[in-house]
């Protein structure tokens, strides 16, 4: 018998497949102009030799390819709920010779078994790049990310911010446009991360980028 979580997961997966069935072919060309802060986040992963790195919502694999170039001896993993996006990711990574270096899996970022998917219980780094704003139960996604972090590991997040220092007309236009793609900035992200920090003893670094257009956050667990 299927439970409510399974139904929600299937519905969201179908929605993402529908949204990206054609967009995935031009996704990287168009998104580079407004998904700001991704490269900064990847640079700060500090993933040395043997470091295990997992991306939740890996999309086309663009970030994983960049991470592979900048952290050459790290072990890279990625998952996405959209089979359409994963097909693009697998093809893109294979084209640049990373087909055997990066392991991909189809799964819901809010509820997955890393042992079943990748043969690992935990990861040294987990990152989420512009995916929380597309995941309905995004707070559960953050909790799941923290649950699969190894002691001393860190969760890295970049996404749309509150746009608090941008003109009101720009903020309104941006959010109306994003809503067309089922994207909604998470205005209470900082408060949620602060609560998790208190509960887990993790340190929190939070920075607003580009006058609030984007936010970059890092949660580090104690060893």
From TrEMBL:
<feature type="domain" description="Methyltransferase">
    <location>
        <begin position="53"/>
        <end position="153"/>
    </location>
</feature>
<dbReference type="InterPro" id="IPR041698">
    <property type="entry name" value="Methyltransf_25"/>
</dbReference>
<dbReference type="Pfam" id="PF13649">
    <property type="entry name" value="Methyltransf_25"/>
</dbReference>
<dbReference type="GO" id="GO:0008168">
    <property type="term" value="F:methyltransferase activity"/>
</dbReference>
<protein>
    <submittedName>
        <fullName>S-adenosylmethionine-diacylgycerolhomoserine-N-methlytransferase</fullName>
    </submittedName>
</protein>
<keyword id="KW-0808">Transferase</keyword>
<dbReference type="InterPro" id="IPR029063">
    <property type="entry name" value="SAM-dependent_MTases_sf"/>
</dbReference>
């Amino acid at each position: 018998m299927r439970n409510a979580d399974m139904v929600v997961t299937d519905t969201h997966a179908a929605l993402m497949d529908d949204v990206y069935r054609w967009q995935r072919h031009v996704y990287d060309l168009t998104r580079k102009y407004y998904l700001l802060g991704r490269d900064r986040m990847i640079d700060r992963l500090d993933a040395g030799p043997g470091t295990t790195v997992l991306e939740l919502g890996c999309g086309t694999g663009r970030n994983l390819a960049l991470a592979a170039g900048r952290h050459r001896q790290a072990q890279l993993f990625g998952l996405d709920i959209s089979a359409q996006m994963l097909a693009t990711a697998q093809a893109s990574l294979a084209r640049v010779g990373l087909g055997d270096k990066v392991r991909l899996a189809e799964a819901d970022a809010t509820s997955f078994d890393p042992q079943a998917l990748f043969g690992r219980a935990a990861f040294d780094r987990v990152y989420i790049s512009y995916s929380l704003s597309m995941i309905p139960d995004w707070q559960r996604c953050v909790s799941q990310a923290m649950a699969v972090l190894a002691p001393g590991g860190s969760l890295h997040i970049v996404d749309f911010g509150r746009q608090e220092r941008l003109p009101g007309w720009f903020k309104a236009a941006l959010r109306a446009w994003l809503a067309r793609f089922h994207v909604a900035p998470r205005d209470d992200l900082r408060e949620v991360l602060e609560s998790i920090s208190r509960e887990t003893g993790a340190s929190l670094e939070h920075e607003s980028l580009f006058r609030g257009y984007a936010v970059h956050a890092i949660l580090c667990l104690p060893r």
